[in-house]
Give the backbone structure.
Amino acid sequence: MKDNILLFFVLFIYSIGYSQNEVINVQPSIMVVPYTNSGQNALLEYEERQEYKSIIATINSSFQDRNFYPKDLQETVNQVMKNKGINSLENLNFDIVEEILAEARPDIVIKAQIYIHKELSGNSVQIILNAIEVSSRRPLSTLPQLSSPHFQTDDYGYIVDRLLKQDNNIESFINNSPYAK
């Protein structure tokens, strides 16, 4: 009996010591949203155009590959539309992005400015990423405009994937954030 108590005590002390060495790395929650400063409704573009959905999905995948797990924009949009009783993102009398952020409650919003160019010589994409801390509205990181060459493809996800991987652009964007330190 005395040996069992001693064994239990030793195992207990060992487990305390082991648990103190274990470090848990918690990533902030993020959400990628299309953005425009030209007056367009970027979320409407996202809802109506497959190219935008493909680009946002590719950006999300780039973060997932680096152990960030973005909140799902489409599910959040659907929930906000259901909660507000609306069927369209046109002619709204409220700020849909604010409603999405209130519903999803991410720590960081990644604003993705997306410009799609369709020409006879091929398709190209320009993107700008801005990471904003939601609670303080403080900018955390910016990925300046990236422009792809023209590709003979309609796979805009492929084009954006190449842009993000080129010169480790996505790594630089993440590493410039204070959360990466």
